[in-house]
Write a structure and sequence with these properties.
Rossmann fold; AB_hydrolase_1; Pimeloyl-ACP methyl ester carboxylesterase; alpha/beta; 259 residues; 16% strand
Amino acid sequence: MSVGHEEIGDGEHAVIALHGWFGSAASWRVLHPHLDTSRFRYVFPDYRGYGARIDEPGEHTLAEAAGDVVALADGLGLDTFSLVGHSMGGAVAQRVLADASHRVDALVGISPVPASGVPFDDQAWALFSGAADDLGNRRAIIDLTTGNRLTEVWLDAMVEHSRQHADPGAVADYLHAWAKADFHTEIEGNPVPVKVIVGENDPALGEEAMKATFQQWYPRCELEVLPNAGHYAIDETPIALATTLERFLTGHVRESTAV
């Protein structure tokens, strides 16, 4: 199986970056100019039902997405790699860690979904579950999770990206996959170096959520709160994000892959 992806860089440290629920491999392009492509090789896959794979059928589960990540790594000849996951991509990254821990050098979550899923009250679930078919719901979610503070032009562009790059059925399926997941006992105590990066304006997957989840499970977990960012630091603060991301990864390169 050929896993659709984008790729930049020819460095010796491979990094597989996993997009969020409303994103795609193309969502990372805003970060590309700020990445060190001489030290790192960045790979940006699409999940089934997204981006270059929008018409590819699948079950749209975390296990399936994680299996595709490992298959992609195999196809690219990557014995080990670091993982970066944004939002839902953080849950996929942890599923890869649970299934193939020996392959993972380090893990970075950007406003990541915990391995225990996300609790919703009835009102929030109605908003999120309606997002597959209602673009207005997607816009409201993006606005909410960035603190109701960003330009309407950007909000509209984010919704349009999601509309163009995601199959509605996949959006619906993946919501259940990440929101209702709970496999934290499979990763609890894992010694992999972990960093979680959250925006100060993210009301859901912010500092307190990370302290109650990631920092309870991973003994080598660092936490950083980015000023002037919400849930979408890739767009909101790309230079600051690239800087802290690569500083962390540089400190956790295996000797066999060190530049």
